[in-house]
Amino acid sequence: SIANYLGGVILFEETLYQEASDGVQFVKKLLDLGINPGIKVDKGVVPLNGTDGEGTTQGLDGLADRCASYAKEGCTFAKWRCVIKINKEKNLPTDVAIQENAQVLARYASICQA
Fold first, then answer.
1. Cys staple from 55: which of 16, 45, 88, 100, with CB 3.0 to 4.6 Å?
2. Residue partners of 95: CB distance under 8 A and separation at least 6
3. 3-class secondary structure, 100
4. Distance of CA 85 to the CA centre of its chain
5. In sequence order, what are the residues at sequence separation of 6 or more whose Cβ sits closer than 8 angstroms to the Cβ of residue 1?
6. pLDDT tens digit string along 50-100?
7. Which residue from 21, 28, 22 is spatially nearest to 9, judged by alpha carbons?
8. Cα distance between residue 35 and residue 31, in whole Å
9. Would you call the peptide bond into 93 cis, given omega within 30 degrees of 0 as the criterion?
C-alpha cells in the first residue's frame, strides 16, 4: 500500500476540495489510507523592500480562519514556505531578511497551533 511510504500529502487549496473519479474526496481517500492530508497555506514570496532581491512570505492575513476551515475539511497539518537567499559575495542573507522571515514563521506557527 502507498500508505507504507507516505505519512502525509501536501495539497493546494484548489485540490483540497477535488474528488477522485469515484466521487470520493481526495482528503477522505487519504485519511482512509492512514495518510495525513496537509495544506499549503502561504500566499507566495514577495520582495522585501530595502534588500538586494531578498523576499518575505505573505499570507498571514486571514490565516486563522483558513486553518480552521481546512481542519474541518480533514487537514491535519499545514505547510508554509520562507525563502532565504544565500550569497557570500552579496553578504546575503541580511539581518533584515533573517529577522523578517523568523517573525513570519513564528506568527505562522502561533496561528496554526492555536
1. 45
2. none
3. helix
4. 19
5. 33
6. 999 999 999 999 999 999 999 999 999 999 999 999 999 999 999 999 999
7. 28
8. 5
9. yes
Positive or negative, the Cα torsion across 11, 70, 43, 108? Answer: negative
Residue written as cell 474541518?
Answer: 72
Per-residue pLDDT at 114? 85
Helices in the chain by DSSP H: which ranges?
A: 13-16, 26-32, 63-72, 95-112
Distance, CA of 39 to CA of 20 (rounded, Å)? 18
What's the CA gap between 26 and 53, in Å, rounded?
A: 38
pLDDT in tens, 6-63: 999 999 999 999 999 999 999 999 999 999 999 999 999 999 999 999 999 999 999 9
Residue 12 CB contacts under 8 Å (≥ 6 apart), including other chains? 39, 40
Task: State the pTM of this model.
Answer: 0.87
